[in-house]
């Protein structure tokens, strides 16, 4: 288990007595999602284990690997994986309906460069991903916990960013996106405070233009039409 300078595990939640990066939600698994879990799970899913994952063996090839935390229903993830077949993509998600949905999309698209781990992302990072193994990390529209008293539950915090950076190769990147301005401000502060990362944006705001590989979702497009903002942040590992 990774530790910070104080000797405490990274991203430790004392109230839960364990590391966690999510809040459990319930959801109904549709028939199509259930079939995908049963039929496609053996092909695309990797079991969680407290041992370093052999990426080349998991994908059957050696290629730059990008890890995504919380892929929702997988629509964006599937589009990105189809757009960049030269890269490997590991999606980490705890909610079964979303896993089933992504499996269905991966099967329909024959996305051999996709693997899924249904587990807490922090434990996956700590126990399965070797330091310097990743080419990138995606965190798109994480729960904003918009009430001030709940802000401490937000995913993007210093200890997690430190852990993410430790798993990136030099030159790798962290790409976050949010449609909550307050969270965007926090992300910019937290990512900017990590000494091993450099903001790639040249805009005075510090926010990056949406990279071409990140498609907009129906929800995002609706918000943009209503004048709501979306903020992308892209930071590069420098040391």
Protein described:
This is tRNA (guanine-N(7)-)-methyltransferase. The protein has a single domain, classed as 3-Layer(aba) Sandwich (Rossmann fold), CATH 3.40.50.150. With 239 residues, the chain is an alpha/beta fold. β4, α4 and β5 form a beta-alpha-beta unit. The two termini are 21 Å apart. α1 crosses α4. The strands form two sheets. A seven-stranded mixed β-sheet has the order 5-4-3-6-7-9-8, sandwiched between helices. The chain has a two-stranded antiparallel ribbon with strand order 1-2. The relative contact order is 0.15.
Secondary structure blueprint with pairings:
Blueprint: E1 12-13, E2 18-19, H1 31-44, H2 55-59, E3 65-69, H3 75-83, E4 88-92, H4 96-108, E5 114-117, H5 121-127, E6 134-140, H6 158-167, E7 168-178, H7 181-193, E8 197-199, H8 218-225, E9 231-237
Helix pairs in contact: 1-4
Family: Belongs to the class I-like SAM-binding methyltransferase superfamily. TrmB family.
Protein name: tRNA (guanine-N(7)-)-methyltransferase
Region (Interaction with RNA): 149-154
